[in-house]
Amino acid sequence: MANYNSIEKIISAEILRTNEDNLLANRVCNTSYVGDIRNKGDSVTFIGLSDPTVYDYTGTLNYEEVDDYATTLFVDQDKAFSFKIKDIEELRSSVGLKDSQTKRASYLLKNEVDAYVFGLYPDAGHIFEETTVTPANVLLTVAAIKQKLEEANVPDGRTWIIVPPFIKTKLMLAGIKFQINNGVNGTGSVGFTDELGCDIFVSNQLCKSGSSTYMLAGSYSAIAYAEQVLETQVIDRMEYSFDKAVRGRLVFGAKVIKPTELVCCPVIDGSNAI
Length: 274
Known about the structure:
Blueprint: H1 5-22, H2 24-28, E1 43-49, E2 68-74, E3 77-85, H3 88-94, H4 101-118, E4 126-127, E5 131-133, H5 138-151, E6 159-163, H6 165-173, E7 189-193, E8 198-202, E9 208-209, E10 212-219, E11 223-235, E12 244-256, E13 262-269
Parallel strand pairs: 4-13, 5-13, 6-8
Antiparallel strand pairs: 1-2, 3-12, 6-10, 7-8, 9-10, 10-13, 11-12
Helix pairs in contact: 1-4
């Protein structure tokens, strides 16, 4: 049997690179965890420090113990892909190309992860009433969301909003200018806006129910996320077939750890008339 270690490593790197460049969960979540992920069911720990007490100074300093707090995140999601191929050399030469099978598999894994993370919206500390959004009220809608985060002491520059494409369109019609897409393929980052004071991301993976899309906003510490590519493998010959096959597996988990710093607003696509 041929040794395909090199191409398996390349495919694994392709998945990680796609996730790093395009996965919004990696961009908006806290990913600073302690622990190793070897399989589904493993757990990792997110460590922080409790806030110190501020008191009136009367000439004497009182040093308090600042407790560590830890949040355990269980890696309970397990996704895989597998497909047959005729020519392993053709696959090897296509790795890294935009429309290669491995690239597509990586993008589809990315979509699954984002959809799962955005599905945590019921754990948001505040959920707005459903709003039909037009260019006339889109800034009011975003301002109300931003205000909730400011009331939770999330400063400018530490705030993100993930919007569906129709909200981006309405913001542009309302006069908001965005930075260039920052090299992200498809939906992704559209940059920081001075007018809104937050980072804007566009995604088709936000949860939907009927005509509503659950738009999310939060701080970069609100959601914890961890992932690991467990394996990528090239099978030299399938049973009952001369075909070869490629398969890969990604495990991950996510959890809302600061609900007061996460806001959800169900939005409906209204008219684009100005």
